[in-house]
Design a protein that fits this description.
Layout lengths: L1 E3 L2 H7 L6 E7 L2 H8 L3 H18 L3 E7 L12 H14 L3 E6 L6 H12 L6 E6 L6 H11 L30 H10 L8 H15 L7 H4 L15 E8 L2 E12 L2 E8 H9 L3 E10 L9 E8 L4
Parallel strand pairs: 1-2, 2-3, 3-4, 4-5
Antiparallel strand pairs: 6-7, 7-8, 8-10, 9-10
Helix pairs in contact: 1-3, 5-6, 7-8
Length: 313
């Protein structure tokens, strides 16, 4: 793949072994002028024709990146009418694939689905792809929305590493792209077959982190697959932690506890027994009740709670 912004660069690329030309455009005229130095009209009328003609004569495909397709940080939302007209022009001029780029992370799943469904309904003879940036944490969700709309081509990068996207102000994080391994894992868990060997892919991520000299923002390498079963840590093992006679009746509370400072997070507790113990002063405070399960056996209901032990007892 070779990035071309001028016809002369494209002609030089033809003497190499590259098989695809990449062109950058912006749906926002302001962004296009700032990033490329031309108006969008100038790019379409002067730059693209010579590049597309050269590529076609030399049997090379052309991939056009449409930046700010889901919004411009300087001018706001881009109308769907403008995107439709741009896609129609690019298809007529001979582009083989158009990539809609969320340059500064302004997209959301609803806007992604509504935009892509309109574009796909045009049924043009052109591939449609997406390139989301995780500026505001919505990139993976936007990928799923794009898949549901019908898109099957996604730009990603190992571990999510990237340069800082042009046009993002006051932020200097070079990790904006969708992590390849995270998206592959998500699709596989959804039953979408990607054909990617995930273990070999994670080996590539490890190599990428070695080359970068830092942890990359992808999650899967450290979190593991969601289907992975792990052993219970020692500090979370189940214990019989209290036996106390209340009103002549022995009450046993079987708990799974995790201590953070003086707060104990308690699970699978016989709730009526807990109430009895609380009334008799064993605990000083019930902080939060989060779940009421169905009664089981002789238990009067299982309850997940958070409690604070009385430090004076």
């Amino acid at each position: 793949m070779w990035k071309c912004l001028r016809g002369t660069v494209c002609r030089r690329a033809m003497i190499t072994q590259i098989d695809e030309i990449l062109i950058l455009l912006s749906a926002s005229d302001t962004f296009n002028k700032l990033n490329i130095g031309r108006t969008l009209k100038e790019s379409l009328n002067k730059m693209l024709p010579s590049i597309l003609d050269t590529a076609a004569k030399n049997s090379r495909s052309v991939r056009v990146y449409v930046m700010t397709a889901f919004g411009c940080p300087y001018t706001g939302k881009i109308s769907i009418e403008d995107i439709v007209q741009l896609l129609l022009k690019l298809s007529y001029m001979g582009a083989s694939e158009v990539v809609l780029v969320d340059s500064t992370g302004m997209a959301n799943p609803r806007s992604v689905q509504s935009t892509l469904r309109i574009l796909l309904d045009l049924q043009l003879d052109i591939n449609l792809a997406v390139h989301f940036h995780n500026t505001r944490g919505a990139a993976i969700a936007n990928c799923v929305a794009a898949y549901d709309a019908g898109v099957r081509i996604f730009d990603t990068s190992l571990g999510g590493m990237s340069a800082t996207p042009y046009g993002v102000s006051e932020l200097d994080i070079g990790c904006w792209n969708v992590p390849t391994e995270d998206l592959v894992h998500l699709f596989e868990e959804m039953g979408v077959k990607t054909g990617v060997d995930l273990e070999k892919l994670l080996d590539c991520v490890r190599l990428a982190e070695q080359m970068a000299g830092m942890h990359l923002p992808g999650h899967l390498l450290r979190a593991g697959r969601s289907s992975q079963i792990v052993g219970i840590p020692k500090h979370l093992e189940r214990h019989q932690i209290m036996d106390k006679k209340i009103g002549g009746v022995l009450k046993t509370a079987s708990m799974l506890i995790f201590k953070s400072a003086d707060v104990y997070f308690v699970y699978t507790l016989q709730f009526q027994s807990f109430l009895d113990l609380f009334e008799h002063g064993l605990f000083s405070l019930i902080v939060w009740s989060v779940h009421q399960a169905e009664p089981a056996g002789d238990a009067e209901g299982l309850q997940s709670v958070v409690l604070v032990l009385d430090q004076d007892r």
